[in-house]
Design brief:
By secondary structure, this protein is an all-alpha fold. Helices cover about 80% and strands about 0% of the residues. It has one domain: MetI-like fold.
Length: about 220
């Protein structure tokens, strides 16, 4: 591997780590609301969260590109803040990746919250625990397998992104060129040995991720 490969690997891991942390922060309250609410909006919100599962990445990337462009609402807002436009920047990649990987974090956590049931929460309420204490002392510990699954899937899905990172980030060395885009570059240039090294690494990484998911997640072990 040369320096370009190593830089792409570092940028990919950096992107996946930041996105996973943001997804846990953003996705947890969404998952809790979806698991607990009786609102008529639950179906619509759940469908919006799950859209990246069925939308082609280029479609989502296209609309995010418009939103973050000079005539889009997000683009105008970032320009008003004085930070410029986000397309073809690392922060733009982060935002796009958060949208694209959101269901992979929200859905496992939501399922874990729903699996808790009402009884533990009712017991906590009888002990005069506040909703905040109940959430952190009862719900979060009991939903730990969902958090583990969500974090692993969110990280792995971000590492494997291609379409949306190419649409939003382009292919700028040391700034937005991640591993998936670099593999495409190697194949396009007929540099098959380099493509083999990176692709083989991605296969091994994917296997290790799934092995960890099914080995260390108690809920999935019980299902098996």
């Amino acid at each position: 591997m040369d320096s370009a490969d190593l830089n792409a690997l570092w940028l990919t891991l950096k992107l996946a780590s930041i996105v996973t942390a943001l997804l846990l922060l953003i996705g947890t309250p969404i998952a809790w609301w979806l698991a607990r609410t009786q609102s008529a909006w639950k179906g619509a919100v759940g469908a919006i969260v799950a859209l990246p599962l069925v939308l082609p990445p280029t479609v989502l990337g296209f609309y995010l590109l418009l939103a973050m462009g000079p005539h889009g609402p997000l683009g105008r807002f970032t320009e008003w803040l004085g930070i410029g436009l986000l397309p073809f920047t690392f922060p733009g990649l982060v935002i796009a990746s958060v949208f694209y990987s959101l269901p992979f974090v929200v859905q496992p956590i939501q399922n874990a919250f729903e699996a808790i049931g009402e009884r533990p929460l009712e017991v906590a309420a009888t002990l005069r625990a506040s909703p905040w204490d109940t959430f952190w002392s009862v719900a979060v510990p009991l939903a730990r397998p969902g958090f583990l699954s969500g974090a692993i899937l969110g990280f792995a899905h971000t590492v494997g992104e291609f379409g949306i990172v190419l649409m939003i980030g382009g292919n700028i060395p040391d700034k937005t060129r991640v591993v998936s885009v670099l593999i495409y570059d190697h194949v396009e240039a007929m540099e098959y040995p380099q493509a083999h090294w990176l692709s083989g690494g991605m296969v091994i990484f994917s296997f290790v991720v799934l092995l960890a998911l099914y080995t260390f997640n108690p809920a999935r072990r019980r299902e098996g």
